Structure formats: C-alpha cells, structure tokens
Amino acid sequence: MKQFLITVAGVFVGLLLFAILVPAALVGLAVAASRPAALPARTVLALDLRNPLTDQEPQGGRALFAPAGQSVIGIETALARAAGDSQVGGLFVRLPDGGISPAAADELRAAFLRFRAAGKPIVAVSQGLYPSGVVTSTYELGAASGDLWMQPGASFQATGVALESVFLKRFFDKYGVQADYQQRYEYKTAVNPYLYSDFTPAHRESELSWMGGVYDTAIASVAADRKLAPATVKALVEAGPYSAEDAKAKGLIDHVGEVKEAENAILREAGQGAKLAPFSTYAARGRASLGSAGAPAIALIQAEGAIITGTSGSSSPFSGGGSIFSDDVAKAFETAAADKDVKAIVFRLSSPGGSDTASEQILAAIRAAKAAGKPVVVSMGTYGASGGYWVSSEASEIVAQPSTLTGSIGVFGGKFAVGDALSRFGVDVRDLSVGGAYADAFNPGAPMNQAQQGAFKAWIDRIYNGFVSRVAQGRRIPVARVGEIAKGRVWTGAQARGLGLVDNLGGLPQAVERAKALARISGEARLKPIPVGAHPLAVLARLLGGADADSARLLTAADDVAGDPDARRLLEILHDARLRASGAMVLAPRLVD
C-alpha cells in the first residue's frame, strides 16, 4: 500500500510539472523567437528602486515561483554594460520614500558616477524622503544622479539617522521569562534587548558610532556631488524638514515637478526619439563583458545571508534565499582553487554572521585556495560582520564600502528559560535526562545551573579566543590590539580601515582590480563566476528522481523564462486568455477529477 501511494504521488507530481513546465518552455521559445534583436535606437533605462533590493542575485537561482527581484550587483553590472552601449542614452531613477542600505547607496553611487562619466545623463525623481530606515543614504544616491527632482508638495525629511530598540527585560520579569545568555563581550549587543531595559554605555557607544559613521559618509558624498562644503550640507539637512519647494530653494534638490515632467526631461536630454525601457528588461538581455576567452581568469564567488552548515541541495526549492550554506561555498572555493585558468578569487560577501563552525569551514577553504597560489580578495556588501568577518579574516585583502557594517568580532549564545512563565498558565515543564550533567543544559524549562553555566562560559570563551586569534593571524595585528577593537563591536568600513580590519574602500570593481594586482595580471582579465549551491529546479528534479541532463536543462530554461519580464507578461496574457476560454475554471478541480 505504501509503495502504491508513493507511485500515485509521483505520477500526480509528474503530471503537474508536465502541465506547468512544458508549456512554459514552449512559450519561452516563442518569446525568444519573437523578441526584437535590438533595443530602440535611443533608450532611457527606467530603474525603480522602490522595491526591496538585495546585495546579489540569489545563488543557485530564485526559489520556485518567486518574483524576480533586483540586486546591487545586478544593477551595477548592467550599468557597466549600458555605459558603453551607444543605444542607451540615459537613466531614469525612481527613488524609494524611505531608506536603503547605506553600503548599497555607496556602491550604486559609484556606479551612477561611472555611468555619468561615460557621458550618459541621469535623472532621479523622489515623491518624498521620509524618516524610515537610513533615508540619508537614499538622498546620497539621489544627489549622485546630478539631476534630482522632487514631486510638488512632497516632503524632504532626510534630516539624520535614527534608531529605535525595544527592550523586553521588564516584560520578561513580569511574566517569568529568563534570558539565559552569555556575550563576549560588552559590545556584542544582539541579546541586550532581552537582558536590559535600556542601552548600556557600551551598547549606546557602539550604535552611535556606526550611525555617525554612516551619516558622515552620506553627508560627505552629497557635498562632493552637489559641490558644497560638508558643513554646509550638514547644516542645511539638520535644519529640516522642508517642503520640496524649500529644498530646491536651499539647493538640496534641482527641480520640483511631477514624475511625468521628470521623465520627459530625461527623454529630451537623451536625444530625439528616445524611449523608456524597463531596467530589468535591459539587464535580462545580456551581461557585462567578462573579458576575452584567452585572458587570465579571476573567479567570482558570491554569498549573501546568514552563515549555516549544510548545502542548499537539502533545502526546499520553494523557499527563498537568505542563507549561506558552508558546504556550497567551500565547494566553490575548491573548484576555483583546482581550476588552472583561475589566477585569483574575488569573494563577494554580505553577511551579518552565523554559525562559528560553518564560518570556520569556509575560512578553511579560503586558506586552501591561498595555499594553492590563488589570492583571495573579499568584497563586502551591506555586512561583513561577526561570522562574516570570521570567514574574511584570513583573506589576502578585504575591500569594503565606507558604510559596510563589519567587525563585530565576538560571540553570544544561550537560551530562554520559560518554565516559570508557563507555570503561571497551568503548564508544568519537567525534565528527564541521562548522561552527563550538561545533557539538559539547553532544555527551556529552567536556567542553567552553576556547573552548566561554567561549562557554557568556557565554551563561549574558546570560540571568542579562537576568533580573536584568527583575526590577529590573518590581519597581522597583535592579539592584544585585536582584543581592544573586538569585544563584539560593529564598525563601519571607513572606521575598520583605520583600525586595520579592512584594506581598501570600494566595491566589486575595486576588489577585482586588487585581485588582478595580487595575481600580477598586468593586462586584461576575465571574470569567471563559480556557481554556489544547487538550482532550486535541480533540487526539485532530484527529489522527483529526474536528475538527468535533459530534464535539468528543461527545468532551468523554464525558470529563466519565468524570470524574463517579457516572458512573464506573455505568460500572464496567455493565462488570462485560458481562464476566459474555460469559464474561469481553475486547474485544481480538474486534477481532483
């Protein structure tokens, strides 16, 4: 009976996949055949930054049925190609109302300036800048356009950087929850909201330090791009908020006008006959030149999210990204190290931290790549902190944006003890264990006893001391000095450079140049992306027992179609037409029948 049910389930899923993926592949072929070979003679790319922005494209591909998103690296790559494309006459940018990642603003600002240096104009339009997130970073990016518009009557509220933390200590005390955590040391503040009812002096110092660093970077960038003194920009910004009209009068923006007016302005500037085209459509048509086939190769390995052990091949193909699997990244480094064409490796990383053992596995792979004669340059995105710094600590060089949040050389761990809280609602927690006294240390019923706490503290100390020693060895800084700048403290990239934790400031292009220099490549080099992890469709194919090459190619092609904007629109049209023809019947009842 069990085998029968498995067979029936397999047939059902197979039919479902056939009904969905084969038509999608056929539609994809039709779309590819009908797609025009070239863009209009004069195109203005329309980039909308109001949707969530990741640092990188999902490694291994998007989760199944997930909408296509935008990434900092994807935008930067497409802009590099567009800068040399004679058919692209300019860029039209829609800014978000709130803040964006400060490091993303740094990287995209540099990409905007390179685009403008190629003689291509940019118009950015805002429908208001409001105090949500780091809105000064959004203003930094708008100022880099060289032509910043704001809608009439909109509000300019980019007046600084603010942060709010919710502390739960008194709530926990009232309801009997105990946060049984250890931190190394006072600046490792991730669990402070559970342990205290207010900022500790170290917590306050650390937060204000990185916030001030991010703010100063934004002010300096705006001042440079608007050709004003930093003190002038700071005074003007802090005297706000302003209406759009007042912001223009004070020289903070260039024009007040409706979105359509700003659109018409960039089209006029781009030249006669210029038309708007979605940035995503342009980006999907190709990729930046990666260099000549015979040129020395620099491997590009990318990873974004929390660092955990394992492989993406064991995860659900329907779940989103957000994790760096140590097996996958380590394997990518092994592949790059064994490739005779690869002369150096650039590791693009954006991670706030994660497992120490997973981080150590990746670090070991970096060591092995260096031992094989391949310099490794880390390019940090939004974060390169905690576990993200652990994996970076022994790289040949580290490149970070001025506003990258890095460092956080520290560790924390523990549990919530909820036995008392549950007992107040008539729920009794009783423990049983066999073996050593530490066996039930992490049971949630009660806090650790004195012996368990001692053992746990020793474990936390070993991890922390190991972290410090790795940083000292990799960065060639005395252990005592690392101890002073560690303690879990977060630094901006600019601050970290002054402390010796980062070598250079910049983004992916600067990291590639440093990799070329370390590999002694004097001429052209080509980037060679190394896949990290399994494609979600390949995972699904394995789960269904269909891992042959033809199936994998079909699944991948179908997913590429789903991610192409033109194909998605055509699929939606065909889907709507099919529903109308069938009387708006859905697929599920037919399958049930």
Structure description:
With 593 residues, this protein is α/β, with parallel strands linked by helices. It has three domains: 2-34 and 547-592, no CATH class; 43-159 and 240-284, 2-enoyl-CoA Hydratase, Chain A, domain 1 (Alpha-Beta Complex); 297-427 and 445-529, 2-enoyl-CoA Hydratase, Chain A, domain 1 (Alpha-Beta Complex), CATH 3.90.226. 47% of the residues lie in helices and 17% in strands. It is built from 23 helices and 22 strands. Strands 12, 15, 16, 17, 18, 20, 21 and 22 form an eight-stranded mixed sheet that branches. A six-stranded parallel sheet has the order 10-6-5-4-1-11, sandwiched between helices. Strands 2-3 form a two-stranded parallel sheet. Strand 5 (122-126), helix 4 (135-144) and strand 6 form a beta-alpha-beta unit. Helix 1 packs across helix 21, helix 7 packs across helix 8 (230-238) and helix 12 packs parallel to helix 13. The longest helix has 33 residues, at 2-34. It is globular, with a radius of gyration of 27 Å. The relative contact order is 0.14.
Estimate the mean pLDDT confidence.
85
Low-confidence stretches: 22-34, 62-67, 536-544, 551-558, 564-569, 571-593
* CATH topology title of the largest domain: 2-enoyl-CoA Hydratase, Chain A, domain 1
CATH superfamily of the largest domain: 2-enoyl-CoA Hydratase, Chain A, domain 1
CATH hierarchy class name of the largest domain:
Alpha Beta
Choose one word for the global shape: globular
Number of domains: 3
